Amino acid sequence: MTALIETGETDEHKELRASVAALGSRYGREYFAEVVREGKHTDALWAEAAQLGYLGVNLPAEYGGGGCGIQELSIVLEELGAAGCPLLMLVVSPAICGTVIARFGTTEQQRAWLPGLADGTRKMAFGITEPDAGSNSHRITTTARRDAATGDWLLTGRKVFISGVDIADATLIVGRTEDARTGRLKPCLFIVPREARGFSRNPIDMEISAPEKQFELVLDEVRLPADALVGDEDAGLLQLFAGLNPERIMTAAFALGMARHAIGRATDYARTRQVWQEPIGTHQAIAHPLAQAHIEVECARLMTQKAALLYDAGDDTGAGEAANMAKYAAAEACVRAVDQSVHTLGGNGLTREYGLAALITASRVARIAPVSREMILNYVSHQTLGLPKSY
Ligand SMILES: Cc1cc2nc3c(=O)[nH]c(=O)nc-3n(C[C@H](O)[C@H](O)[C@H](O)COP(=O)(O)OP(=O)(O)OC[C@H]3O[C@@H](n4cnc5c(N)ncnc54)[C@H](O)[C@@H]3O)c2cc1C
């Protein structure tokens, strides 16, 4: 109970934090940097985290998951990030895809996917962004039509910036189907296996030091069996939002972990680096911005916890607002924390050895994805404050 009052978390959450942090510290930034340098993936860490039950902590126990929620999964991601080795695929595989399948998938889809997503032996990517839609996901044009003779789906369209498609067994693609009655396009989710015919990917040359790559995807009449459609054709938007709230909460956790990692490196440095009579951390010009960054991270974590609690309690609407605010607050805290941390190290902030400069680009990801800072401000000004819609 004391822990709950102090941190908004239970004793079990604190224990989970401590044990994930211990795992993360055994790998650390050096491991992550080496994996990136060698063009490999974080397979060893992924496998060990899976074995310890961390990757599927949010998935139903009957399918081998931990039976907990997004709050616990966000703790896992934040602590690994704070140790310098964030696992981006946690945002998409168990958080978005696992959640959507657990909540809306058919029993067959749950049996086929959840045990593998829970024990980490299978991964699923998530594709919604399109080149001509971007932030305006109402404009996506990837369309599925039924082959009347076989009942199969034929999916055609393009996606961009989709993470981890090369290491995922399948991608959960947001497409649209035509409403037979009104002719309007309705959002729908399809599981597209990596090697499906007509499904091709081109890596995008990103300036981000991370093991996960982003891809442009082309879907050219990809033939999928009837049961590739997740859940109900008419509940598309509802199902989609069930996955997008965890995505925002997890992106907040990703940003919080990175911010804590950067602040940790900077404070260690500021405590010992001495160019006058005292360490540079004595100067308030160095100390105060780091203190400010720490406060912003703590505040953003509280909002992230609120969003996760609401989501796990089944309040999708309340969680929607809180998840947007949490993602905004955590991303902004992260960008500022990284900026100040790099500055604290002077010239060393830009060396590869200290590993902070790479975070400048990485921290910007949380500001733009999965929903940009401006789109969250649009949402809050319109939905929360009741101001006229601007777009
Ligand atoms: C590293 C990385 C990984 C990603 N992984 C995935 C993934 O796995 N799956 C996936 O589906 N997508 C992924 N994305 C895509 C990401 O979600 C999009 O980049 C994001 O939604 C923004 O879309 P856009 O890039 O097309 O920007 P645009 O929509 O073109 O926006 C450009 C700028 O204009 C601003 N803007 C746009 N509209 C408005 C408005 N109405 N009012 C004010 N400002 C506006 C935006 O805020 C932004 O600053 C990833 C992106 C990155 C960078």
Automatic annotation (TrEMBL):
CDD domains in UniProt: ACAD
Acyl-CoA dehydrogenase/oxidase C-terminal domain segment(s): 236-378
Alphabetical keyword list: FAD, Flavoprotein, Oxidoreductase
Database matches in Pfam families: Acyl-CoA_dh_1, Acyl-CoA_dh_M, Acyl-CoA_dh_N
All copies of domain Acyl-CoA oxidase/dehydrogenase middle, residue ranges: 125-219
Cofactor(s) listed in the protein's UniProt record: FAD
Matches recorded under InterPro entries: Acyl-CoA_dehydrogenase, Acyl-CoA_Oxase/DH_mid-dom, Acyl-CoA_Oxase/DH_mid-dom_sf, AcylCo_DH-like_C, AcylCo_DH/oxidase_C, AcylCoA_DH/ox_N, AcylCoA_DH/ox_N_sf, AcylCoA_DH/oxidase_NM_dom_sf
Keyword Flavoprotein: yes
Ranges where the Acyl-CoA dehydrogenase/oxidase N-terminal domain occurs: 10-120
Gene3D superfamilies registered for this protein in UniProt: Acyl-CoA dehydrogenase/oxidase, N-terminal domain (1.10.540.10), Butyryl-CoA Dehydrogenase, subunit A, domain 2 (2.40.110.10), Butyryl-CoA Dehydrogenase, subunit A, domain 3 (1.20.140.10)
Sequence similarity: Belongs to the acyl-CoA dehydrogenase family.
Protein name (record): Acyl-CoA/acyl-ACP dehydrogenase
Organism expressing this protein natively: Streptomyces oryzae
